[in-house]
Amino acid sequence: MRRGWLVLLVLLVGPGAARAATLEELVKRADTVLRGQSSAGVFTMEIKTASYERSFEIVVWDESRGEERTLVKILGPALWRGHGTLKLGNQLKLYNPRTNHVTVVSHSMLGDSWMGSHFSNDDLVKETRLARDYAIRELKQWRARNELGQQVTFHLAELTPKPTAPVPWGKIVYEIRERGELVLPTRADYFRKASDATPERHLRFGDVKRLGGREVPARMEMTVTRKPGEHTRIIYKSITFDLKIPDSKFTEQALRH
Question: What fold does the segment set 20-256 form as a domain?
Answer without folding.
Answer: outer membrane lipoprotein receptor (LolB), chain A (2.50.20)
